[in-house]
């Protein structure tokens, strides 16, 4: 994870905290909701309807990303994208982020600049008007990015996981399995002879399969579809981060129903569509007869049940991502 | 940092994510401001006056704490205390926290339970009514705690660093140098022959100097004094995390004034009072004639200047804590 510093590319330790902040903060905008941005003990953010939505997420080098595969820009982009999707899944409009980063002091400051650029561009693309209102910079041997994201419900009730009722349609917006396919490509062909992530091979794989590898490293979730779903009367919604089968079960269990997918609607590779993690699409249920907004596609229906997931009426097992199972601790 | 698991004390990997959450979440209360707590994609928090205060902070094993010195309860307490103080320093009442933790899978789940207990008790003691509304659990080789804290300005303007004017009095609430004295005791006598943190020796030092070592490991900052200062008309305020001299300079620079301390008011050891970091007291300025609220003590005055810090009229140098300087990367 450590790199030799070049002339003109000093390390974080060489620059010191305040000079580092002086190079990062100008790359970030506080956004429309910031009443007071970075620079004091805390920021002040507008919450026009008297409530705010909040979600937090840690990205850790090793289990969550590898610098041999992701550029710093990718990391910033993905950190923004995944948290924005959690806000969107409540039916809220994302307003702001705070970002705390722990970084090895020997790392070039350009890595932090790249992360900041990715945060800024991810916000601009996925949640225009939202910005970074504050943050923290710490030292660690393991690059770690903690993002907390905020959203505005604009007077609406939050869309929970628990509101699906039999007769609702099940709809999905976003990729189905692309991020998992991209990760499989990276593990297959983006590693060296010893199985360790290799930046040159990874760049080759990405050039060959830009859509699939991009879906893993810098996903483009349908963030604005969250508000559209809430306005259309969505009865339940969540961010599909652990795979469609596992996340559908969360709605089914919270709502006390079964979700029955139409297999043919999920795409050509049913197994990857159901099991593939990290797509960060939105899975929602709508009343029968509701006008399901773009880019949602109807992929099934809610039926009476007790927390099960079905495909064409037949139960399927859960399959997903547990951060503690199968992790071998490689720091890649 | 890794411990052998005992029967009845399984590791996080052995239990798996959802069982771990099942043991942690019941130990935490969402607090009075939580409209929707943990369990969905995001939480919903009340922001009665249409704004919220937000601050975020990362605590990293090694530079920020050592498990050989701090109990898990201490870590949770300190993570709450330091963030609550940043909220208080804006003149806001703390309402809620979100907490993201990255933890080695080989760590006993009792460590996370202890952190949760410390968070709960720290909140109950320092900010009654505030709670933990959400979080995240990740895997890392380095134990890392990211806290984001929220506060309610209750209709008041935030108290910034930039509002001090000549003629104001300078007042301080909280310890002056105790946390630094406690840390020095731990480095002096809480280490083994090789200079590495040693839990048995550290426990001995703590038993001998409970107040000073406690000030370092589980500080008790004057959180409620933040609102009291705002109500009393404080013109500037901040959390003293990097030492009185360094943090006083931040007010002086932001306000375009000098802060002149009365040396005798700072206690018997002026050097430690000025340089000692991590006390998390509140430094504030008030208009001359304002009724300075308890437990603030008047310790100086604001004079015309250009960002300087004086003691009895004589300039003093800055001295404080830069997380990247002098850190040797030991993981303790």
UniProtKB/TrEMBL annotation, chains A, B:
Binding site for Mg(2+) 1: 56-57, 136
Keyword Magnesium: yes
Cleaved signal peptide residues: none
Catalyzed chemical reaction(s): thiamine phosphate + ATP = thiamine diphosphate + ADP
GO BP terms in the entry: thiamine biosynthetic process; thiamine diphosphate biosynthetic process
Residue positions binding Mg(2+) 4: 41, 55, 86
GO MF annotations in UniProt: ATP binding; magnesium ion binding; thiamine-phosphate kinase activity
Pfam family, one: AIRS
Protein residues bound to Mg(2+) 2: 57, 86
EC number: 2.7.4.16
Miscellaneous remark of the record: Reaction mechanism of ThiL seems to utilize a direct, inline transfer of the gamma-phosphate of ATP to TMP rather than a phosphorylated enzyme intermediate.
Entry-linked PANTHER family: THIAMINE-MONOPHOSPHATE KINASE
This protein's name: Thiamine-monophosphate kinase
UniProt source species: Agromyces ramosus
Phylogenetic classification of the source organism: Bacteria, Bacillati, Actinomycetota, Actinomycetes, Micrococcales
Gene encoding the protein: thiL
């Amino acid at each position: 994870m450590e790199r030799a510093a070049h002339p003109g590319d000093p390390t974080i330790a060489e620059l010191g905290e305040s000079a580092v902040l002086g190079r990062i903060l100008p790359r970030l905008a506080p956004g429309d909701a910031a009443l007071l941005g970075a620079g004091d003990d805390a920021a002040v953010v507008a919450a026009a309807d008297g409530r705010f939505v909040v979600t937090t997420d840690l990205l850790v080098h090793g289990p969550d990303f590898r610098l041999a595969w992701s550029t710093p820009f990718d990391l910033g982009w993905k950190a923004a994208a995944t948290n924005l999707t959690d806000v969107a899944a409540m039916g809220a409009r994302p307003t702001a982020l705070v970002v705390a980063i722990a970084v090895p002091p020997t790392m070039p400051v350009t890595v932090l600049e790249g992360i900041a650029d990715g945060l800024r561009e991810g916000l601009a693309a996925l949640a225009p008007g939202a910005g970074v209102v504050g943050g923290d910079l710490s030292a660690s041997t393991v690059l770690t990015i903690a993002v907390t994201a905020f959203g505005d419900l604009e007077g609406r009730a939050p869309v929970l996981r628990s509101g699906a009722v039999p007769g609702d349609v099940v709809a999905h917006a976003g990729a189905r399995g692309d991020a998992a396919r991209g990760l499989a490509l990276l593990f297959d062909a983006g590693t060296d002879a010893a199985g360790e992530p290799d930046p040159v091979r990874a760049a080759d794989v990405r050039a060959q399969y830009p859509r699939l590898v991009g879906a893993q490293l810098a996903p483009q979730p349908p963030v604005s579809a969250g508000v559209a779903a809430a306005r259309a009367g969505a009865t339940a919604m969540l961010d599909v981060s652990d795979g469609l089968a596992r996340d559908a079960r969360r709605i089914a269990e919270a709502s006390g129903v079964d979700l029955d997918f139409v297999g043919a609607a999920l795409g050509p590779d049913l197994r990857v569509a159901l099991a593939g993690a990290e797509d960060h699409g939105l899975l929602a249920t709508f009343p029968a007869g509701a006008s399901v907004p773009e880019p949602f596609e109807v992929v099934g229906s809610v039926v009476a049940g007790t927390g099960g997931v079905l495909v064409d009426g037949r139960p399927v097992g859960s399959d997903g991502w547990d951060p503690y199972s199968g992790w071998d601790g490689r720091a890649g």
